């Protein structure tokens, strides 16, 4: 749907930001453009909605050359999200979300309904409609920023490091939310970032740029397996290459299938005995259907053993879990980044099927350094 | 004490006259600022766009500001003759600088990210000005109008020398009679009062036009409602 044909951009003073760029993006594709600063990634993106005009070559959307259409009309058909969020402080959330609709002269009641509908996409209540941006947290503001780009149902959305200014935890949850949203709405997205983790997680295809040229353009898996050259390898980083071992794909393949569990109706003394027996410091709490209820650890038991007697009364219900279909490299990153000791693995019905511990990670790293072959020889 | 009772006596005898001059004084100042706003706000917007012109335009307005008020009136009188119009025109000139400067600063200080997102969302140049830049700069522009109005209320006092009337008339009468202190004060006090009131009212307007809406009560109420 979007096509770059030998596009170059030379700024005044002769600086060549983009050099002979060719790229074709299909409908519904999520493209991440990544590279070191000054590699021309933002210039490339801004050329699409003519915030910057190309010096040579042609960019076309659905076969129509963008230079032939009116820039204002063109921009109203393309969503745009920036790192600084850029919500207008003097407008309410409702007005901010529906601004493009207002420019397109959609009547007020329809704009209001649309804003409501969009807010529900990110699980925010309609109460927020009348608030002003400064009354929201950074994460909520950027959610609104994303919604604003979706308001007129634009098929193409440009994003310039949209999650760059958020704290790591908010960023993580927003990325996940956004990826789900994108799958649901089937938007074509051009996403500029300098964060490789983000690109690997979100993109269908990653475009790696250097000095205004494309170095490699491939799916995340392909880039991890076959980096085009040393630059790409260095850019991805050694640890990610290790994690991308092709024979280990989903979490299901590396988890330990029999985590120590307990049901909610047992007593705390039984729980502590079970821990002692298996030499672990926490237990996963499940019900009869093996659906994960939460977790208890020795600390909780120690604190609450005087007040409660049953496991169900002290269980910590907020547990971070991964789906068994998740790719290993995402899980590894989460475990390492968030400093978790273990992550329960669940299936689509939230039934506990296994656990990934730091010990499982040691296995992967061991495999990748000495290889599976040697292991089988020893075995 | 004697002075105060004399002032009150003066007011009781000349209430209608004082009111007429007060009103006249205010109108001269207000018209001066109004005409200046009509010219200076567009000029301010223009030089914010073409930044190179800003030094020239602002220096020119600065020079006007340095001319002593009496000299300015005298020179204008040579061209425009006696009367109210000359005073209004000189007040117009004195109002230009604060309004141009504040409009320029207000527009220039609008966050670049907001301009970019406005443009990228498909606003025309005029829409960016009307929907983003002006609302966000409005409180700064209002601050300029506030300064201008306070300055002109002061300067309008000397309009009396070229026969424009206003509260300056009363002060001048006071200086022309023996023991005129009460009469001078009877003219000076309303002038000062007018300046203070103008400042307070414009300050209130300025805060109300601030783009960041502070609404303590309703925000708390909102949160309480959500919690309930």
Give a written overview of the molecule.
The complex is a heterodimer of chains A (379) and B (228). With 379 residues, chain A is of the alpha/beta class. Chain A is built from 17 helices and 16 strands. Chain A has helices at residues 41-48, 71-76, 93-97, 99-103, 108-121, 138-150, 168-185, 196-202, 220-225, 230-236, 238-243, 251-254, 268-278, 298-304, 311-314, 328-338, 358-378; strands at 2-10, 16-25, 30-34, 56-61, 64-65, 78-82, 156-160, 188-193, 205-210, 213-218, 261-263, 282-286, 292-297, 322-323, 342-346, 352-357. In chain A, strands 6-7-8-3-9-10 form a 6-stranded mixed beta sheet, sandwiched between helices. Chain A has a 4-stranded antiparallel beta sheet with strand order 2-1-4-5, covered by helices on one side. Chain A starts with a strand and ends with a helix. Chain B is mostly helical. Chain B has a single domain (2-227), classed as MetI-like (MetI-like fold, Orthogonal Bundle), CATH 1.10.3720.10. In chain B, helix 1 packs parallel to helix 8 (181-208). The mean pLDDT of chain B is 90. The A-B interface holds A 49, 51, 72-78, 80, 82, 84-86, 88-90, 99-100, 103, 125, 127, 130-132, 134-135, 148, 158 and B 111, 113-114, 116-124, 127, 131-132, 135-136, 211-213, 219, 222, 225-226. Chain B: One of its GO terms (cellular component) is plasma membrane.
Which architecture of chain B does the CATH hierarchy give at level 2?
Orthogonal Bundle
Total count of strands of chain B: 0
How can the largest sheet of chain A be summarized? 6 strands, mixed
Counting H and I runs of at least 4 residues, what is the number of helices of chain A? 17
Largest interface: A-B, 29 and 24 residues
* Alpha carbon gap, first and last residue of chain A: 53 Å
Low-confidence stretches of chain B: none
Beta-strand share of residues of chain B: under 5%
Q: What's the rounded overall pLDDT mean of chain B?
A: 90
Subcellular location (chain A): Cell inner membrane
Protein name (chain A): Quaternary amine transport ATP-binding protein
InterPro entries (chain A): AAA+_ATPase (IPR003593), ABC_transporter-like_ATP-bd (IPR003439), ABC_transporter-like_CS (IPR017871), CBS_dom (IPR000644), CBS_dom_sf (IPR046342), Gly-betaine_transp_ATP-bd (IPR005892), P-loop_NTPase (IPR027417)
Catalytic activity (chain A): a quaternary ammonium(out) + ATP + H2O = a quaternary ammonium(in) + ADP + phosphate + H(+)
């Amino acid at each position: 749907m979007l096509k770059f044909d030998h596009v170059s951009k030379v700024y005044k003073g002769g600086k060549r930001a983009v050099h002979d760029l060719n790229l074709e993006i299909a409908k519904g594709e999520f493209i991440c453009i990544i590279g070191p600063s000054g590699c021309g990634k933002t210039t490339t993106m801004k050329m699409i909605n003519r915030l910057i005009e190309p010096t040579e070559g042609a960019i076309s959307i659905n076969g129509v050359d963008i230079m032939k259409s009116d820039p204002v009309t063109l921009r109203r058909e393309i969503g745009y999200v920036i790192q600084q969020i850029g919500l207008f402080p003097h407008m309410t959330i409702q007005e901010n979300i529906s601004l493009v609709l207002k420019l397109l002269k959609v009547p007020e009641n329809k704009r209001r309904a649309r804003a409501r509908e969009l807010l529900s996409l990110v699980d925010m209540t309609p109460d927020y409609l009348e608030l002003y941006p400064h009354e929201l947290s950074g994460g909520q503001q950027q959610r609104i920023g994303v919604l604003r780009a979706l308001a007129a149902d634009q098929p193409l959305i440009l994003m310039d490091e949209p999650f760059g200014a958020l704290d790591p935890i908010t960023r993580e949850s927003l990325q996940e939310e956004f990826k789900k949203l994108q799958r649901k709405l089937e938007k074509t997205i051009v996403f500029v970032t300098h964060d490789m983790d983000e690109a690997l997680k979100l993109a269908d295809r990653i475009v790696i740029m250097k000095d205004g040229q494309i170095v490699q353009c491939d799916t995340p898996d392909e880039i991890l397996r076959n980096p085009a050259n040393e630059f790409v390898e260095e850019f991805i980083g050694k640890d990610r290459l290790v994690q991308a071992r092709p024979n280990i794909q989903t979490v299901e393949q590396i988890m330990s299938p029999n985590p120590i569990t307990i049901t909610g109706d047992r007593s705390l003394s039984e729980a502590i005995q079970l821990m002692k027996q298996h030499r672990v410091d926490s237990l996963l709490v499940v019900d009869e259907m093996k659906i994960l209820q939460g977790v208890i650890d020795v600390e909780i038991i120690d604190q609450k053993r005087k007040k409660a007697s049953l496991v169900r009364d002290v269980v910590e219900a907020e547990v971070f879990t991964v789906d068994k279909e998740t790719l290993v490299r995402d899980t590894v990153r989460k475990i390492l980044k968030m400093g978790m000791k273990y992550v329960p693995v669940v299936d689509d019905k939230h039934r506990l099927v296994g656990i990934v511990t730091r010990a499982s990670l040691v296995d992967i790293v061991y495999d990748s350094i000495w290889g599976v072959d040697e292991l089988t020889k020893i075995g | 004490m004697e002075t105060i009772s004399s002032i009150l006596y003066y007011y009781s005898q000349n209430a209608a006259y004082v009111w007429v001059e007060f009103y006249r004084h205010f109108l001269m100042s207000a018209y001066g600022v109004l005409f200046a706003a009509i010219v200076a706000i567009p000029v301010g917007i223009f030089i914010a766009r073409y930044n190179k012109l800003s030094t020239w335009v602002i220096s020119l307005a600065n020079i006007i500001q340095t001319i002593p008020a009496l000299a300015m009136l005298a020179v204008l009188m040579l061209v425009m003759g006696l009367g109210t119009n000359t005073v209004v025109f000189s007040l117009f000139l004195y109002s230009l600088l604060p309004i141009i400067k504040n409009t320029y600063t207000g527009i220039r200080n609008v966050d670049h990210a907001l301009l970019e997102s406005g443009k990228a969302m498909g606003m025309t140049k005029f829409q960016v000005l009307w929907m983003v830049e002006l609302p966000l700069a409005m409180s700064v522009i209002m601050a300029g109008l506030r300064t201008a109005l306070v300055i002109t209320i002061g300067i309008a006092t000397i309009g009396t020398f070229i026969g424009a009337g206003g509260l300056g008339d009363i002060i001048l009468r006071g200086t022309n009679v023996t023991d005129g202190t009460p009469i001078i004060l009877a003219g000076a006090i309303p002038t000062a009062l007018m300046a203070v009131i103008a400042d307070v009212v414009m300050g209130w307007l300025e805060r109300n036009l601030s783009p960041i809406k502070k609404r303590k009560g309703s925000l708390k109420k909102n949160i309480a409602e959500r919690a309930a």
